[in-house]
């Protein structure tokens, strides 16, 4: 494909921004010792949707609470809505997703520390970072996810994992992955894009791989790139908003999206740009047929696990490292002075940006009550209708989107659970997607960014 088909300079701003986005804080030579707490000192580890919402909510509930947010990245970058950058939607740039951590900290009178957490001492109630120790009365863990390449591909060496993770960026963790994937798409020739959703288990934003499928197909269609978006999935078509996504794929991208729902990735050859996988005839097929597909761009999303920061606290976790919760609350089952929100919880609620926001507000109320000697009712306000509202863009010209809402309840099993509903909008003409839902998608994202950073 001719290089002049697309503007070769459109990523100049992205590249410049990437160069200015180091992901880790530099350790200072002289680390600060922990100062005494006020009796109302809350330390929040993680500056994502949950952590920033929590910091602001705590100060609004009780301005006497001393709040400190610790985050290893020096600039905020949102994952929700980021697939639209890959899709080339009008007006969407890297600036759409980034924020300055110090701005809301100054406005709402909490502290922001750009550092990496290296240890947590529950007995001493301190968090050790690359810039020193910070003491707490209440600790909030909102550190997000990590990737479990080792668990999914046990025969791969560390060098192989590093090679594949760079060549086939996942794009489920904020930062350079999104930029690398965008650059690969913009520089690709005719050929296929391979998208591999996480093979099993809980993972960040269940609809994300399928929205990405739509947006990459939209990009290829608009740019006139000859090829297919091949999805190597394990779920046999039973995924988040499945009927709505498949309807839109059939209508908008019938000759571009090739969904293969019963597969298992075996190997990736980054030099040859090939991916080898087994394809199964049905759910009972144990042998499968080994196939190899050539690609121009590969987006491999590995199995997720919880950030190792949670394990540092020495609290009880499940097999994937997610924190075991104290009933319907957001307290750790192990320690009443540790709260967990966002992706890191074991509640049966979807790990999304909106869920993190909802959980942060709820946990903030529980923490404020605890610090002020009050008793919280963990069932208060439940069931919570539309506690999670999740939008997914499925088309770009015209912009159309689908949505799901979840009602959260206090399940008899002893944890919070969510029940989802994928509605057909009034302006959809009997379809799951509509222009009005696309407008709501943009409004939702603009609203949550404004709420965190204004």
Strand content: 15-25%
Structural class: alpha/beta
Poorly predicted residue ranges:
1-29
* Fraction in helix: 25-40%
User: How many strand segments?
Assistant: 22
Q: Strand order within the widest sheet?
A: 5-2-1-9-19
Mean pLDDT: 94
Shape estimate: globular
Task: Please give a structural write-up.
The protein has helices at 12-19, 49-61, 83-87, 102-108, 149-152, 158-167, 176-187, 208-223, 242-252, 309-312, 353-371, 435-453; strands spanning 41-45, 66-71, 76-77, 98-99, 111-114, 117-121, 126-129, 132-135, 138-141, 145-147, 193-196, 229-232, 257-260, 263-269, 274-279, 289-294, 297-300, 304-306, 338-340, 384-396, 399-410, 416-421. Strand 1 (41-45), helix 2 (49-61) and strand 2 (66-71) form a beta-alpha-beta unit. The termini are far apart. It is an alpha/beta fold and 454 residues long. Helix 2 (49-61) runs parallel beside helix 11 (353-371).
């Amino acid at each position: 494909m001719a290089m002049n088909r697309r503007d070769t300079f459109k990523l100049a701003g992205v590249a410049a921004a990437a160069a200015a986005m180091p992901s880790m804080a530099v350790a200072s030579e002289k680390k600060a010792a922990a100062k005494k707490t006020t009796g109302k000192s809350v330390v929040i580890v993680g500056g994502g949707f949950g952590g920033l919402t929590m910091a602001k909510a705590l100060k609004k509930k009780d301005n006497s609470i001393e709040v400190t947010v610790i985050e290893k990245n020096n600039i905020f970058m949102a994952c929700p809505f980021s697939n639209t950058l890959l899709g080339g939607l009008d007006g969407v740039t890297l600036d759409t997703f980034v924020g300055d951590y110090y701005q809301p900290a100054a406005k709402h009178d909490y502290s922001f520390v750009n550092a990496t957490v290296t240890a947590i001492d529950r007995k001493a109630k301190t968090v050790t970072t690359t810039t020193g120790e910070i003491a707490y009365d209440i600790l909030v863990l909102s550190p997000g996810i990590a990737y479990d390449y080792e668990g999914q591909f046990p025969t791969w060496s560390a060098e192989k994992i590093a090679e594949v993770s760079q060549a086939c960026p996942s794009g489920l963790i904020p930062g350079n992955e999104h930029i690398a994937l965008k650059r690969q798409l913009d520089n690709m020739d005719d050929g296929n894009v391979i998208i591999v959703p996480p093979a099993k288990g809980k993972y960040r934003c269940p609809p994300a791989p399928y929205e990405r499928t739509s947006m990459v197909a939209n990009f290829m269609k608009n740019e006139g790139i000859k090829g297919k978006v091949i999805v190597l999935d394990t779920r046999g078509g039973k995924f988040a908003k499945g009927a709505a996504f498949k309807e839109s794929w059939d209508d908008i991208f019938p000759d571009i999206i090739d969904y293969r729902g019963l597969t298992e990735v075996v190997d990736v050859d980054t030099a040859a740009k090939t991916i080898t996988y087994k394809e199964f005839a049905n759910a009972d097929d144990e042998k499968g047929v080994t196939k190899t597909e050539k690609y121009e761009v590969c987006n491999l999303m590995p199995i997720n696990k919880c950030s190792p920061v949670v394990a540092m606290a020495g609290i009880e976790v499940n097999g994937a490292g997610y924190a075991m919760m104290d009933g319907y609350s957001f307290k750790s089952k192990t320690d009443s002075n540790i709260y967990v929100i966002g992706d890191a919880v074991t509640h049966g609620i979807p790990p999304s940006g909106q869920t993190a926001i909802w959980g942060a507000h709820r946990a903030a109320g529980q923490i404020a009550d605890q610090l002020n000697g009050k008793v919280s009712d963990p069932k208060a306000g439940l069931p919570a209708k539309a506690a999670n509202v999740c939008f997914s863009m499925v088309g770009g010209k015209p912009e159309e989107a689908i949505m799901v809402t979840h009602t959260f309840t206090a399940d008899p099993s002893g944890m919070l659970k969510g029940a989802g509903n994928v509605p057909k909008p009034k302006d959809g003409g009997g379809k799951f997607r509509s222009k009005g839902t696309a407008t709501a998608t943009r409004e939702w994202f603009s609203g949550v960014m404004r709420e965190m950073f204004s």
